[in-house]
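Check my protein:
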Amino acid sequence: MKYLILITANPAIDAHFAALPDDERKREFQLYWDIESDLDASGELVDSKAVDAASQQLVTRGPDGAVTSATSDAETVSGYYLVDVADAARAAEIAARFPEAAVSGGGVRVTRVWTQEDFDATT
């Protein structure tokens, strides 16, 4: 099953990384590369990317069709890992390895990626 692991940033996470001494910050950032290497070696990694949190926008469309876009200081996505794993427990195990999972007020989002077969089964 495919799962999307979303790495998010928010003020608590930003403060956590900012408070770390340089050597500890480097060790925590190395975790991302270590996790990616482990997932690649196990064949569970489908794709992963870091994204530019500063360029993110929340886009909405009103009932009149007008589109608005705004930036937000709230939680933003800073990266993702798309994995193909046996079950939700394995996806959660992977997510728990990221530094954000250990930050109070932080966390890592995990969600199953639906396939066409999943949609077909609901109709």
User: Anything to note?
Assistant: Residues 1 and 96 are 18 Å apart (CA to CA). Strands lie at 2-9, 45-50, 58-61, 67-70, 76-84, 108-112.
